[in-house]
Amino acid sequence: PHGSVAWIASRDADFDLTLRASGGAGIKAPSFFESYGTSSFALGNPDLEPERARTYDGGFDLRFRESFRLQATYFRHQYLDQIAYRIVSFSPFIGTYENLGETRARGVEFSSEWRPTASFRLVSNYTFQDSEIVASTSTDPLLGVSKELLRRPRHQGSVTAEATFARGTFAATLLRAGRRADSDFLGIGLEENAGFTRVDLRAAFRLSAQVRLLAALENAGNTDYQEVLGFAGLPRRLRVSVAFDRAR
Fold first, then answer.
1. Phi, psi (degrees; rounded to nearest 5) at 32
2. Is the separation of the CB atoms in 109 and 73 below 8 Å?
3. How many CB atoms lie under 10 A from the CB of residue 44?
4. Cβ–Cβ contacts within 10 Å for residue 143, how many?
5. Which 8-state DSSP code applies to residue 228?
6. Each residue of 18-36: pLDDT tens digit?
7. What is the C-alpha to C-alpha distance for residues 49 and 137, in angstroms, rounded to an integer?
8. Is 177 buried (19+), middle (13-18) or exposed (0-12) by CB count in 10 A?
9. Pick from 15, 139, 181, 247: most CB atoms within 10 A?
10. What is the band of 1 on the pLDDT scale with cuts at 50, 70, 90?
């Protein structure tokens, strides 16, 4: 079941305000691999129970004229029998899946768009998330009570500036992800992944009514980072492509 409600508190040419809230419950069955996998790295557990979730959120949408928009949302998610990966042995290496008793995640999300002129806009997003294992029967120390859920940064946000010209568009995005709990899954004691900052650049130029030239410079600062502990992010890279639009 799921339900939502919204109330338009104000609506006119210069100012819109909408209040909203929703809540629901759902289940997610374990995958075939999680239940019946045969590799030592991920040995299946046929006794897994489905994950159960209860989610609640509330917030508002605000518009001021056509130049500024703001969205804010508070969320709270509760998970029962969440499926987690557990290391059984390091030598030989054996891992499997199990149900945790109860976990939760709560926080706030903000997004905004500021458009001072028709050819320029600034878009930003920010999420604060506090996650915790509330009840656990696992023997893995990483999955004990009061531990953070893996790979969920407490702070994450981005800012994008986009400018449009007669025949082209240029955009730059600054992304910041904070520290988060993680694991090397090798038994050497690494349980945290440092935060990182990355800059991406994009451009599009219209060569004709049906042809556009697209370019993207990702990780322009050549930042060393790992979104997942032990797996290095790609270095600076340039992609160029051509898009053909259907004639109208």
1. -60, -40
2. yes
3. 18
4. 23
5. B
6. 999 999 999 999 999 999 9
7. 14
8. buried
9. 181
10. confident
